[in-house]
Specification:
Helix 2 packs antiparallel against helix 3. The chain is built from 3 helices and 3 strands. With 100 residues, it is an alpha+beta fold. The longest helix is centred in the C-terminal third of the chain and has 20 residues.
Length: 100
């Protein structure tokens, strides 16, 4: 188990990390940690949030939206945006927050 933690820490050190917080209402919040974006950071966040909204919009047509599908769609959208902007493939953590 300790080996897995070290592997994850190396990946985060090399590729950075993106956190996506979804509460089901309004826009998602995206935060990039350790991405080489400096002056492009705000533009990256805006595009990543828009991409997550678009990805989740595509799920809305299905009868019942599975939280795991929501999480995976958000994860992939944020990761693709980060890859476009930074050239890195960061670890992405999606947090599904309750209600309000």
């Amino acid at each position: 188990a300790n080996g897995e933690a070290m592997v994850m820490r190396r990946r985060i050190a090399f590729n950075g990390m993106v956190v996506v917080a979804l509460n089901g209402k309004g826009r998602p919040n995206v935060a990039g940690i350790g991405l080489p974006l400096d002056e492009d950071y705000a533009a990256f966040v805006e595009e990543a949030e828009n991409d997550v909204v678009a990805a989740l919009g595509k799920l809305k047509g299905t009868a019942r939206v599975d939280p795991a599908e929501v999480s995976e769609a958000a994860r992939l959208a944020a990761r693709r945006a980060a890859q476009r902007w930074s050239g890195k493939k960061p670890q992405v953590q999606v947090m599904l927050l309750d209600g309000d």
